[in-house]
């Protein structure tokens, strides 16, 4: 019988003891084995970042791959390589909602729906949408950061946006399911909560080939129930209507015809429907669907009103903001919308669109929550620190986005969400408010950092309209965007002066012109950040919390720039400290007359006197 080895397996060859020379050789190998690098042990991701720092296939891609690690699979990378695609397919259920309306004969159902907090969804769905507009924004969505990467920074859909646009609750119990729903469990829910027979439930799920039911099936079986029906039938019809409502609005999927039965469990107790955080669940589901396709045109109309929106003049602020805009189809092509977004400036963005809406719908404090949001088995990170400008604060370099936990750890996520007041961004993390409302300011080093980790332009310059350059020509990764960055920053400085009127002092105008001149003709911060890691922290180097705020914890705070003082406690804007004029603005000293006095470099004002020589008679 062959001998048994140490692992329990048998070997055909007999086990042989190692010789003395072999043992000495093993000892020598252990002694010369290099010790593990402490940096590689503590930060195992940095070594990988050095190897995947540059994406050579797409010049418009990020230089530093510490954030967008999967950018080579992103649609923006394929567009840079000339692999274009058609506009995405959109799912629109606006017409289906009108097929099941709650009239006076169904007042009992309407009262329950109104108390649920979801009644506003019956009128917030647009019947038409622009495919090129939504497709162009989906191409800028990055799932690693759950934000849109625009030419001037990141933007995203916040809990404040959901609450203002839809008027649904964003606080309450998290919508969480312990495990995916099986078909047999779906049939049991249909029989128990909707009163159908086991045969009808099994036939419907078999036709859907999933634990789902068709929206048409719900309308055919329950839309005819009125107030004259029995109490049980009215309850069954109310649950069916709410399932039909969320399937057409909040949780619409790519099937375009069905809705999952798992949401029916949320309507078991109709008196507890308003206790769920429907807005947070909608946002988590929206983040996941933005990777493929979804509908979020109301958010685009609010933040980019000059580009895409068509307002409804009969709108009042007591209604949801989704009804403020008149849906229309933009006649532009997908390529033209891409180019419009590539040329987008900070001044064209409405950073705080709900200021007039606060009297009817105050700002929800939970919008400052930093953590994970969940909808069933979907878990997505929520990062308000990456879009501080949408809250009226100066944008700083945000910390690295965290990876969401597994959906099976629902108990921890629920406990974290229930204590959301303990996980709000602190005042230090929020930083300082913008000097002017809606100005979209950022710290000076933000754009240099953002230029390294993001792709600011989707449509390559050689493929733009009217361009005859070869699509495969090599371009520097950020050469086309450096001038745009300087112009945008200079316009932001000048816009503050223009909006202030004529009552400002001359020093205020001089300071703004001086700042704009330094931005336009000063050193290239982007180029400097590419060569040295100090201006813009590189993620593949060994970080230090004191010098690299990118690796600081979420409660970090950046030192305020020396040129801007923190705002005082009063509502008046703080006085602007104007530095003395730089040497580049001063005219050169005259050299024709050696007897002329030299200018005093320490004086605030220098007077130059040109001597006049008398002509000889």
SSE order and pairing:
Blueprint: H1 20-32, H2 38-42, H3 44-51, H4 75-80, H5 94-97, H6 107-115, H7 131-138, E1 141-142, E2 147-150, E3 153-155, H8 159-166, E4 175-176, H9 183-194, H10 198-208, E5 212-214, H11 215-222, H12 231-248, E6 258-260, H13 278-289, H14 297-303, H15 305-308, H16 334-342, E7 371-376, E8 378-382, H17 410-418, H18 427-430, H19 446-453, H20 479-500, H21 506-521, H22 525-531
Parallel strand pairs: 4-7
Antiparallel strand pairs: 1-2, 2-3, 5-6, 7-8
Task: Explain briefly what this protein structure is.
The protein is mainly alpha-helical and 617 residues long.
Give an overview of the whole structure.
The protein is globular, with a radius of gyration of 31 Å. 34% of the residues lie in helices and 5% in strands. It has 617 residues and is mainly α. Strands 1-2-3 form a 3-stranded antiparallel sheet, with no helix packed on it. The chain has a 3-stranded mixed sheet with strand order 4-7-8. α20 packs antiparallel against α21. A hairpin with a 2-residue loop joins β2 (147-150) and β3.
Can you give the helix content as a percent range?
25-40%
What gyration radius follows from the Cα positions, in whole Å?
31 Å
- Strand element count: 8
Gross morphology is globular
Strand pairing plus helix content: what structural class?
mainly alpha
